Amino acid sequence: MKKKIIGLCAILLLASGCGKVPTLENGQEAIVSFENGDMISVDDFYQVIKDDYGLQALITMIDTYVLEHEFADYVDEAKDRGDYYVDAYVESLGSEEKVLSTYGFQTMDAFRDYWYLTMLQSHAIEEYAKDQITDEQIEDYYNNDVIGDIEIAHILVTPNIDEDATDEETDEAEEKAKAEVEDIISKLDEAKANGEDIEEVFGELVKEYSEDEDSKEDNGSLGRINYGDSDGKYDELIAAAEELKDGEYSTEVITSELGYHVILKIKSYEKEKLDDLKDEIIQTLSEDYIQNNDDAGINALQHYRREYGMEIQDDEINRQYSNYIQNLLLQIQQSSSNSN
Fold first, then answer.
1. CA 265, 270, 271, 276 torsion-angle sign
2. The pTM is what?
3. Where are the domains of the chain?
4. How many angstroms separate the CA atoms of 59 and 54, rounded?
5. Which residue has the higher pLDDT, 317 or 270?
6. Which residues are 249's β-sheet partners?
7. pLDDT digit string (tens) for 212-225?
């Protein structure tokens, strides 16, 4: 990355003396010469670059400088993450040549640099968002949204749907799966009425009906879980479990991305102390902040640029930069208005 920056600086500021650079009559160094003696000066070249490509190149250089200094301890991780995405694109498209032609980059180094900076910028936005979270917000979230872990067992029934199934066939399969869950609930109701051990009966029904092979041999137990665990795929089960007492089972079909469930709430635990959960809460709230504030990204990068006293000395590029920021904010505002 630093080699690229140095190289780009050399292109834009080609006035250093190499000893053999042709010179125009007005003293400007030439970057191209013709056999008739005409030349294209470094200043002419710089002007074209400035007008056509300068702003975006300069923003890349600015953010690379600022973020590499501000988040020096993240640089290696940013490179690794960037390389991960690059390699994934190469694997997906089949070759580096296909990647370059598809995304309009001249070299793979340029593509890697793009993803490296993207990772740096993403990290900067995340850290900026964390700084926007107040202690009051943290305490409020802890008091109203954080719960203790819950130990849950479940029976999963998935609809049997072929890839080429019609809408009607899909609906029929889903209704059949729901009916099976309702039948399981009826069996639990009957066992409860007969005074049987519900946990024991539930375990038997797991082995008979559940399609979750990972938990089937453990009486359907998902262990001690909480919101967000396993990428949130059990959040619907946790929400239903919150309404139950320990030892109770759900009496309505629970729907999740996995299929249809009946659950047994085995045990609830006290929630951890605020100090132990603070970092996790800040992470959650910062993700919500980014999600709910369309201008979080541009505000974050502007913040760090200002922190480093960034000033564009070229009047024309400074004007372009101001227009660029204003247009970005206007687009964000219009997009937000349209979505509402």
1. negative
2. 0.73
3. 1-57, 71-146+274-309, 148-268
4. 9
5. 270
6. 264
7. 999 999 999 999 99
